[in-house]
Specification:
Number of domains: 3
Largest sheet: 5 strands, antiparallel
Order of helices and strands: HEEHHEHEEHEEHHEHEEHHHHHHHEEEE
Shape: elongated
Strand order of the largest sheet: 1-2-4-5-3
Strand content: 5-15%
Radius of gyration: 29 Å
Helix content: 40-55%
């Protein structure tokens, strides 16, 4: 950088990255120069926090080091090599130089496009706080801090993405979260390699212990209250700048069937709802395969008073039970995906009307039976009871291999599929911990087996034992 004119050598490099703007402010010792990209820097910050203090100090001609102390900009850095300067400028920062001094300073004047906190849309509920995270990392941290003003809350910041340089923040409670789990997660985040990241869900496949597994190992949540309660219980939270969802971990299999609203209900009500969700898993995964297996291989399992109506409903169906079930399951998935991609009002109308019209037309045309439509609709409805969307999607996908196994080997095929799934779940780890805890490994205390659903686990009080003991 030239001593006489630090502006000219930088112009040829910086103008390749966008429309570079500069402003010169004369002072008693020379000229101060501000360099920034007009479409990235916030003009309000420049006009209120940067330029007025510089004009006040101009008659005295102070040094850059003295001037920088009088600028009320939160983030300031000393300018280093050209790569650092370019990265900061294309992120909205401003470079402050002087024609009579070497070096310069970078000021965070980035224009942030943000929205105010709104009610949760994905994790909506009746009871509890009605506020959700936003796309702003600082806003999300402020929301969490409002609920959790605890000095033990710690942060670890990372820059992820070769092109996006997205800020990722790891939050945990020191002395509450197990040190070995925190260390493992820090290593995972430090070694993540991405060309670009725009949402927290993109991190899941990179930091999961078993990325090839169908079952998720971390919960994505938009609710600050759920995040805070997980932090207090010794879990970790990952926030990504630009994403309105936080990742909670370690998350076990049974955690995906706990709703944030359960904590605001009476114990017996919450227990009933959790049992209902677990029953919905069985209905969603096994009802249609059991229908196919019974009609194909196990007629003796069908009650005698149901044989006549079942035979009448299938009298015009030209397909075997397996093809009939796969056809309906495929149509249900098409309707669900189409409804999710269309605008909200159009999607709801299309899902309801399309389901009724297609179902009624399929029965009248003889492509399927009334009984199977009821079974498939009940299985699809049960899959939506799961509070966490990604787990519900995994359960819906699991139906298809179960259907194929039921059509190939009947009840033996279903049990084979269950065995493989169970073995897989026993092998899955989440941040080094068992995915099926507390069912596996078995924990005996005071001659009692700790079950996944108990009065203690549903208590609204914070766990009394240290977080490391429960793991």
């Amino acid at each position: 950088m030239s001593e006489q004119d630090p502006f000219e050598p930088l112009r040829s490099v910086l103008e390749r990255h966008g429309q570079l703007q500069s402003r010169s402010i004369p002072n008693a010792q020379g000229t101060w120069i501000l360099m920034y990209y007009g479409d990235l820097a916030d003009s309000k910050i420049l006009q209120t926090q940067v330029i007025p203090p510089m004009q006040e100090k101009a008659p005295g001609g102070v040094s850059l080091e003295t001037l920088i102390r009088h600028l009320p900009v939160d983030q300031q850095e000393k300018a280093g090599d050209i790569d650092q300067v370019v990265k900061r400028l294309i992120s909205g920062w401003t470079l402050l130089l002087s024609r009579t001094e070497r070096g310069g300073y970078l000021l965070n004047t980035a224009l942030k496009i943000d929205r105010s906190a709104t009610s949760p849309e994905v994790e909506s509920q009746i009871m509890g706080p009605q506020v959700a995270l936003t796309e702003s990392l600082q806003t999300n941290i402020s929301l969490i801090r409002q609920y959790l003003p605890d000095t033990r809350l710690r942060y670890a910041s990372y820059q992820i993405g070769e092109s996006t340089h997205t800020e990722v923040m790891l939050l945990y409670m020191e002395g509450v979260a197990p040190a070995d789990e925190v260390s493992l997660m820090k290593d995972k985040l430090a070694n993540v390699k991405f060309k670009g990241i725009t949402d927290s869900s993109m991190l899941l496949e990179k930091i999961d212990d078993n990325p090839e597994s169908l079952f998720p190992q971390m919960i994505a949540s938009e609710r600050p209250d759920r995040i805070v309660l997980n932090l207090i219980e010794g879990r970790m939270v990952i926030l990504v700048d630009g994403s309105p969802f936080a990742l909670l971990g370690p998350s076990r299999f049974f955690d995906f069937f706990k709703s944030a609203e359960d904590r605001y209900l009476r114990t017996n009500m919450a227990l009933f709802l959790r049992l209902l969700r677990l029953a919905a898993i069985f209905i969603s995964v096994f009802f249609t395969p059991l229908y196919v297996a019974a009609l194909t291989y196990h007629y003796q399992l069908i009650p005698s008073n149901m044989l006549v109506p079942l035979a009448q409903s299938r009298s015009k169906v030209p397909f075997p039970p397996l093809m009939e079930a796969l056809l309906l399951e495929f149509i249900i998935e098409l309707l669900r995906e189409a409804g999710a991609r269309l605008p909200t009002k159009v999607g709801q109308t299309m899902g309801i009307v399309g389901g009724i019209v297609i179902g009624q037309a399929a029965v009248q045309a003889g492509f399927t039976s009334n009984i199977l439509i009821i079974i498939v609709a009940l299985a699809a409805l049960s899959s939506f009871i799961t509070p966490v969307y990604i787990m519900g999607a995994a359960i819906r996908i699991l139906r298809f291999p179960m259907l194929l196994l039921a059509g190939a080997w009947g009840a033996v095929g279903i049990m084979t599929g269950v065995s493989f799934v169970l073995i897989h779940l026993l092998r899955v780890k989440t941040i080094g911990q068992s995915y099926l805890y507390p069912l596996y490994p078995l924990q005996f205390g005071k001659k009692q087996l700790k079950l996944p659903i108990s009065r203690r686990s549903l208590s609204q009080d914070i766990y009394e034992e240290p977080a490391g003991d429960a793991r």
